[in-house]
Structure formats: C-alpha cells, structure tokens
Amino acid sequence: MRLRRARQEVKMIKIAVLGYGTVGSGVVEVLNTNAKVIAKRAGQEVEVKYVLDLRDFPGDPVQSKLVHDYNIIAEDPEISIVVETMGGTKPAYEFVKRALLSGKSVCTSNKELVAAYGAELVHIAKSKTVNFLFEASVGGGIPIIRPLNQSLTADKIEQINGILNGTTNYILTKMAEDGSDFADVLKEAQELGYAEKDPTADVEGYDACRKIAILTSLAYGQQVDYQDIYTEGISKITAEDFKYAKAAGAAIKILGSSRKVGGRLYAMVAPQMIGKDNPLYSVNDVFNAICVTGNMLGDVMFYGRGAGKEATASAVVSDVVDAVKHMNVNVMTIWEDEKQQIAPLEEMENRFFVRVGESERAKAEAAFENLEVIDGGVPGEFGFITEKMTEKKFHDAIAEFDTFITRIRVGF
Known about the structure:
The protein is of the alpha/beta class. The protein has 15 helices and 19 strands. Strands 7, 9, 10, 11, 12, 13, 15, 16, 17, 18 and 19 form an 11-stranded mixed β-sheet that branches. Strands 3-2-1-4-5-6 form a 6-stranded parallel β-sheet, sandwiched between helices. A hairpin with a 6-residue loop joins strand 16 (372-374) and strand 17. Helix 1 (22-33) packs across helix 13, helix 5 packs parallel to helix 11 and helix 8 crosses helix 9.
C-alpha cells in the first residue's frame, strides 16, 4: 500500500504598505531581505501585494506593486495587514481607521497619528478583533511599546524619563564636546542629514512631546493629550551653559518626562542638567534612551538608535510579525478614551540651575536658601543651583532680578 503524503498548504499573508518614503521603502526592503526568517518567526509567509504612493518609481521593482488609489487596498479582501508609514494625520487617520473597520490589522510608525488618535484606534481594533500596533512610533528601533504593554504589567509605573530625539541629542553632544554654539552645530547636523531643513519639530521639542504623550498614555492607561504637555526646546542653550555643566559634573539633555506624585500626573519636555549617576548621562550622539521606573522593578533602560531607515523599518516589521501571529486575536492594549489631566506646571517641583549677573550675587543668596554655587568661569556672572521648589515659586523669585540670564531645570 502506497502512502501518500499530503502536501501542506502554506498560507500567504498579504499586506499593503502606505507610503514609499524612507520608512516605507525600508519596510519593503526588510521583508524582502529577511523573508525566510520572518516566515519562520511569523509561522506564515508575508508578501507585499500593494504599495500606495502618489509617485511612480520607474526601475524600482516596487513599481509593479504600486497603486495610487487607496480604495484598491481598502476593498481587497486578500489584504490582512496595512502598514502605514505616510506620516502626519491627513490622510493617514482616515486610511488607518477605514482599514481597521474593514477588519485589517494596522502597523504604523506614525507618532503624530498615534499621539492624536491612539485611544480611538486601539478601541476600533479591539471591536473588530484585529490589531493596531505602533512599536516604531516612539523609539524607532528601540523596543519600548511592547515592554510597557506586556513585560512591565506587574509594576506600577512611577516615572518615565527619555532622550526621545536623536537630532537634539546629537546637537547637545556636539555642543558639549566642541564648545560650539547652537546655530553652528545645527548647521553641521543639517549637512550630515541628522537634522531636517526645517528642524523646528526636533529642536523645539515637539517630536519628543508626542512621544512622551504616547508613553504616558500607555503607562497609566488613559489618554494624555500632547497639547497639554509643557514643551521647551534647545534653541536657547548656549556654549556658556555647558561650561557650568562641566563645572558641576553634569550633562545637558533634553528629556521627555512624566511622573506621578501623590496621584497627580506631571509631564514636560525640557532641557535638564543631569549628573553622572543618571542612566541617561552617557547617552550621546544620535542615540536615544528611555528609562522607566517601576515601584517593584526600579529603573529599566531601553537604549538604541531612535530613528533611521533600517532601525525604524525593523520595528515596523516586528509589528507585522506580531500581527500575523495574532490573526483573529486582539492583543490587549489598555488605553482608555478618558482624558488624563496633567497637573498645572506651576505646581511641579524642580531644582533650577540659574545664571544672573555677578552684581546680584548677594540678592540671589538672600532669595534662594541653601543654593549651590557653580563656577563656570564666565566673567561677570553668578551661577547657582537652587533647592527643590515649585515652578511658580521660582518664577516669582527670579522675576525680581534685573540681570537674569537663563535657567535650566536640574535632574539630580
């Protein structure tokens, strides 16, 4: 009797990629280059059936998969997963929402979309038993969303501090190393491709603000609107500030931070002086890092390249693999629509590094108890660090000084 072996049919998961820019082209490249290992880890082969873009790419193999009309993707029942790498909220929000409502999972790297509509899209995905996954939206190639959502669920998150933007970290690192001014280093960063032609979103902290809003929403399970987070960039940081930081044994970093104190949530994006005992102190150049503090685990840090074609595309594809492994099963994400109120900035307590004119030294010593003098070697100035106080108390006190130059919050 001859035994016939039934050939096992291998199901092919077909996906569509929205946007063939830096990240979108990286996603296609990763899926093609690592096809075998991805199929092994996902349990099924993954094929890009469509790529949506307004442009044509003659000579590129993707041309044969290119479509200019989203309806083709939305109405194709073969498409199980949509990858959104367009950026912005229009038309990304409309496209993603429609995909989820039609029973397709979505993987995105779009921080603007996630920060603005994350809670709504998570709920739609749950209602349709599909998934809305966004690992690449915060840390690029750094895994942080999945750990927050799955690995750290036994802990009560007390605080998140992160260097969330590679452009600003590169600029601050170069200013510290070379003693250069902000404008000169920004120009260099643009020439090297680390900064955009219009760097506003990076250097003024808006990019980091959206990312800390996403992380805080996930950490505490309720919607945090990025518009409510106090945001301050690095354009006013000077070479002289770094002289004082060096004298204090500190580094200057722009941090996205959120913490709960007495049941109240505080959040901000701003430059801070941090000491050598801070795990973020030695994170330099274009690297990012996120430190999460749990009430049981303590500090856990996630470190790596926070942006770039390969790193971000790799994170997006990891979500694709997760979506394939969870077909018809929703991966639970706790992100409620109910808005979480951020406590007023004036109530937040911080220490402050301050520069005033030498002529007002005695006035400073009288106004701020137990101040720590920092000698930055800058003629005609008096530098010091205050005790911890509320933002309002500091603002009221410093308003009395005629020679006030600047202040930077202190994280040590």
